Amino acid sequence: MMQMDKMVEKTLADGAKVTVWRDKGHHGFYVGKVPDDKLAKNPMGAFMSLAAARAWADHEFEGGDWQ
Question: How many other CB atoms are found less than 10 A from the CB of residue 26?
Answer without folding.
Answer: 9
